[in-house]
Amino acid sequence: MSGTGESPRDSSPDAGETLIEALVVVAIISLVSLIGFPQLQQSLLTLSQQQAVAVVAARLREARADALSTDSPVVFRAAADGRAYGVSNGPVATPPPGVTVEPTTSGGGIAFYGDGSSSGGRLMIRASKRAVAVTVMAPTGVVIVGGA
Questions:
Q1: pTM exceeding the 0.85 threshold for the entire prediction
Q2: Rounded to an integer, what distance in angstroms lies between the CA atom of residue 125 and that of residue 99?
Q3: Contact in structure between 133 and 146 (CB atoms under 8 Å)
Q4: Which CATH number belongs to the domain containing residue 62 in this structure?
Q5: Listing from the earlier edge strand, what are the strands of the sheet with 130-136?
Q6: CA dihedral in degrees (27, 28, 32, 33; nearest 10)?
Q7: Residues of the domain holding 130
Q8: Of 40, 95, 117, 125, which is the most exposed, with the fewest CB atoms less than 10 Å away?
């Protein structure tokens, strides 16, 4: 030991972490990421589902508004496999990966009429084990997120 209290090893220019210490740090980081990644992935899937619910509800409300403004029927359709949806004579949209938009009515279509009414129906937006309903009330054409 030197007169200043430092050991000669600490004052050498080669002082630093050993390979074993670096491997321990890498192993700890790996374990933490293995524990946290599935939770992060589920959170991202839930956010994607919430986005899809908002977009589908907005498209349904837009279809109703189009029917009112043109005084002609507008039909919103979802594919039976849940991988596509859209409005008649409009572009087809796809939900985010891992999310499906499934119709619960036969034919998969919800019609909106010029007087504001609709055929009614329900769509289920699914992601993993979680499902959110988007319901269209038949007499009024009102879009309700989360059931009814």
A1: no
A2: 7
A3: yes
A4: 3.55.40.10
A5: 99-103, 121-127, 130-136, 143-145
A6: -40
A7: 19-145
A8: 40
